[in-house]
């Protein structure tokens, strides 16, 4: 068993970053627990999740020695169409955290942290009925037991420890992750959610291993198609676009969108300023994807 996290030490390290931070031994889902929270920048960390979920309702297993946390943000002044960036922002925080322990990681659009082609972490963001955003993160830190297998449709799992040169301190990893998340969110919020002016867009693109690859996308939201030119797209939103009734953040529909459940194959070209993924199909037509499961078909 891993050593329990010291909540007092975490609070001291992150003083001024978060309004409230708690650690619990076990819970069903940290995202679900925060749905009733009201205070901006509230964090809940669980040693164990028994009913954690990934995107599209998939279960997220929580082996011992991982980090399972959710943070509630209320970014007043940030337009709804920019809220998708909270998911991508969390991915950048994960890449920075991995780098802090000497592990080179990359992002699979929109929300998976990959190390050597295997999944080490995932992000699930959802909007609350009162327009807060809950960002849930599951990160495998310690070496995984041999019986841990991927969920349906998931990548093979890995952990930071399996790729680190030295034994990892889980408390230090937790502090770094929450510190990076807070710093990125604070700058993004201060810029009105604009990922370009803060450098967030460039940093995400630099670490996005999806770009330049042949991919297959199982669409779960909207996308538009047409000839693509350089510059940003004005239509569509990433898988973290808003819902007024609560639930997972999802892309809004646009004219000409394919139905959810269809597939798109091609080359991933760019992540746009609105967080969408541009994929050029085999006919040379570029598609702006707002939400979907991406499979990397071959190494660049």
From TrEMBL:
It holds the Pfam family BPL_LplA_LipB. InterPro entries: aa-tRNA-synth_II/BPL/LPL (IPR045864), Biotin_CoA_COase_ligase (IPR004408), BPL_LPL_catalytic (IPR004143). One of its GO terms (molecular function) is biotin--[biotin carboxyl-carrier protein] ligase activity. The keyword Ligase applies. It comes from the Bacteria. Residues 219-242, 250-262 have a biased composition (Low complexity). Its EC number is 6.3.4.15. Signal peptide: none annotated. One of its GO terms (cellular component) is cytoplasm. Residues 18-189 form the BPL/LPL catalytic domain. Keywords: Ligase. Residues 218-268 are annotated as: Disordered. It is an enzyme of class 6 (ligase). NCBIfam families: birA_ligase. This is BirA family biotin operon repressor/biotin-[acetyl-CoA-carboxylase] ligase. The lineage of its organism: Bacteria, Bacillati, Actinomycetota, Actinomycetes, Pseudonocardiales.
């Amino acid at each position: 068993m891993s050593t329990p996290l010291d909540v007092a030490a975490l609070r001291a390290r992150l003083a001024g970053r978060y309004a409230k931070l708690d650690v619990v031994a076990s819970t069903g889902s940290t995202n679900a627990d925060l749905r009733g929270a009201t205070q901006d920048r509230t964090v809940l960390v669980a040693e164990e999740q028994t009913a954690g979920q990934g995107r599209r309702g998939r279960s997220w297993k929580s082996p011992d020695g991982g980090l399972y946390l959710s943070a509630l943000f209320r970014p007043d002044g940030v337009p709804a169409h920019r809220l998708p960036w909270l998911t991508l922002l969390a991915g950048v925080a994960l890449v920075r955290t991995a780098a802090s322990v000497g592990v080179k990681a990359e992002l699979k659009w929109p929300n998976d942290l990959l190390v050597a082609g295997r999944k080490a972490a995932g992000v699930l963001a959802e909007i609350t009925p009162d327009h807060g955003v809950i960002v849930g993160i599951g990160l495998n830190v310690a070496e995984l037991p041999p019986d841990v297998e991927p969920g349906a449709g998931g990548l093979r799992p890995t952990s930071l420890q399996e790729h680190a040169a030295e034994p990892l301190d889980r408390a230090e990893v937790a502090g770094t992750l929450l510190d990076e998340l807070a710093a990125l969110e604070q700058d993004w919020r201060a810029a009105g959610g604009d990922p370009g002016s803060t450098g967030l867009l460039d940093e995400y693109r630099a670490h996005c291993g999806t770009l330049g690859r042949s991919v297959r996308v199982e669409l779960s939201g909207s996308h538009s198609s047409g000839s693509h030119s350089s510059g940003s797209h004005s239509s569509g939103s990433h898988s973290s676009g808003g819902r007024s009734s609560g639930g997972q953040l999802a892309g809004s529909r646009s004219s000409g969108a394919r139905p959810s459940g269809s597939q798109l194959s091609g080359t991933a070209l760019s992540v746009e300023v609105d967080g969408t993924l541009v994929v050029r199909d085999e006919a040379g037509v570029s598609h702006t994807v707002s939400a979907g499961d991406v499979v990397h078909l071959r190494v660049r």
